Structures are given as C-alpha cells and as structure tokens.
Amino acid sequence: MVEEKTKVQVILPVPHQYQERMINSEKKRVIVRAGRRGGKTVGVAIRNVKRFLDGKRVLYATPTSEQLGKWWYEVTTALNPLVALGVLKKNETEHYIERPGTEQRIKGKTAWNADTMRGDYADDLTFDEWQLMDEDAWEIVGAPMLLDNNGDAVFIYTPPSLKSSGVSKARDPRHAAKMFKYAQDNPRWDAIHFTSHDNPYISQEALSELISDMSKESYRHEILAEDDEVQLSWLVYGAFNENVCKIERIAIPKEWLIYVGHDFGAANPAALFVAQDPATGNFYEFYEYFPGAGKSTNEHVEAFKRITEGYNVIWRTGGSHQEDEIRQGYSAHGWNIIEPKIRLVKAQVDRVIGMMERNKIFIFSDMTHRLEEMMNCLWQPDENGKPTDKIKDEAKYHLCACARYLYCNFTPETVERKKASFYVAGHRIW
User: Fold this and answer.
1) Which of 166, 200, 225, 256 is deepest in the core (most CB within 10 A)?
2) Model confidence pTM above 0.70
3) If you classify domain 17-229 with CATH, what class do you get?
C-alpha cells in the first residue's frame, strides 16, 4: 500500500522591496532602521518563517507584548495549516511552534535585557524595537548563543522619540544608532533604511492623519526614521514654532485679505491660499492646492475661484522670472498672477524665515502636505557634511515654493519704512 502525501502551501505576505532585502540578506548581521508602520515586523516575520521552514531554530525577541502579538499573528497565520495536520506543534502560551522530535523551532518572547534573554538558544536571532532594549541583551546573551552554529542576527529599530523614552531599558539611548553607523562601514553587516512612506500597503490617509499630530522632531524620527546625525538645525524652516503657530482650523472671516502663492508645472502644480488678519497682520495658511497632473489652466482657475468665493483676493503671485508666459496664460483665463518681487531663492526663503521667527505665519494642523514639506526640507550638505545655503532637492517642495513666492512680496516689520510721497496730475497729495 502506497501512502499518499498531503501537500500544504504556506502562504506569506508579498513583501515590498525593503522587506525583501531584509528577508533575503545573506549577511551574518542585519540592522534595519525603519519608520513606524513601515512594515519591519511583518518583514522579519516572513524572514523568520522562511528560515524556520529551512530547518533553523529561530528566536524573536521584543520588549513589548504588543509587538510580540503582531509578530505572532503573522507567524501563526502562515504556519497554522501545518499545525492543523499535526506536522508542527503550537504552544500559544509560550508563543512557539516546533517540529516534534527535533530542535527545529520558532519562538517569540518579550525581552529587554540579558536576564530576560537567558534560558533560550537559537541559530537565527531577531531583536525588534532594539532601541528600547538594554545593550547587554545582545552583548552578554545574544551573541554567545549564536557561536555554536555561526548563527545570524537581525536588529530592527525606529529612532527613539520623547514618547518612547519612558519605556526604554537602554543604558545608552543612542546605542542602536551607533550600531547602524558601525554597520554601514562593515562588510559583514547589511544596514537597511526605509521610511513609513516606503510601505505601499499603508493607508496614505492614515499616515497624513498621523503627521498632522506630530512635531518636527517626532516626524523625522518616527516617519523618516532619521537618527540624530540629521540635526533639526538643518531644517530650512526650523524657525517655525509649531507649539504656537500650528493650530486647529478656524473659520476665515470674510473681511480678511486673501493672497495666493503659485508654483507652476504640468506634473505637480501647486497653490497656497493665505488669509491675513488686518487687525494683527498675521497670516493664516488655510488651503493647499495640490491636484497632480492632468488638469488644464482653465480647470485650475475654476478651482481657485471656488476656493476664494466670497473673499477679497488682493493679489496672486508665483513662478520664476522665466515663467512669464505661464503667468500670462493664467491671466488670459481671468486669474492674474504677478511675478514675485524677489528673484533669488535664498532671499525669498529669508523672508519666510524672518516671518516665522516673529510668529507671523500660522498653519492649520490639517494642512498635512504643507507641514510635511517643511519637516522634510533640508539645507544641502557640502563635501564635509556641513549644511550650505542651498536647499537639498529644492524642486520637490512645491508648497514651500508657493510660500516663498508669496511672502517675499511683504516687507519685514524690522525694516524701517520711509515716508512716501504720492503725486496725482503733478500734485503732491502726501
């Protein structure tokens, strides 16, 4: 009698490109610096399952039960068909799945220092949320457990923020960043960096909601996964006081004055709508227009008129000196756009920074594209890694361009105004 064998397919999520690099890396040591919801835990779960099925003894460690739960869900979802057939045995309480009669096992546990790591061994070891763990979890226990089989280790982290500092067990809060920096220059290591935006499966709407509640520092750590070597002083618009000037949306009174800044381009046209309170002179950025490609000039103009209906638009401005033909095209459709008074980008930016330093510019917290551009916009480093006065990838920041085109037309309050004389028909009226 011939015994029939049952074929079981283990189904794993389709990884994005950065997860795939982590999963398939052949380096003995891998360190991953990734933004929140970037897919790092799912990615390492795929890697762990594949290595377990290859016969390895796999151990996953993380300091939080929440993170352990996410990993365990991915592992059990993939391996439950084999558990159901009795090929594998699962222990829900201890979070492990093993092949009976062998040392082949995949296990997850909460651990944050050497003591909580003791009592286990593995030839494939993962530390998730590594930035929150005490360094001795690796140095005293983790590294020695890999010696017998020349095992592999993966370290995953998001740069620490003020939010995470209260739960961290690390003696040196920058130990993960130092390890990443070391790994970048070591051929035995694979140093992988990706942001929350690099995960194509995350809801961009949810990400925008998250960004609206974040400070510049939290955004750079938790979304862009930047370590501290990128200082906040590198931010072009670091003068923006988000504690004072990032505010909840209010209704714009009809008597306030409206100004519009424009950035041209077939692929990424943009416009920024700003209201000025006549009583204080303060500016309130209340609408970001970022429609993408495919609209005609007339369609843009009709949208602008709808946005400003019932308001007094004082003037619209935008574009470089060479883009006069585009301005004329908008004027022909009933939306007159003037050339900015200042042509040099750095001088335009200085006007914006000057107003931000005096808390004259307020931005509503739901203006997520505008806020995110400001959080990303950095000075270009020179060959020595020092910031210059040039903006890195300046052409990407369309709403920031709208703002500098607009605000450069206003004279800073620190400039002393001379009394002007006006003449009508040759007669001086003041």
Assistant:
1) 225
2) no
3) alpha beta
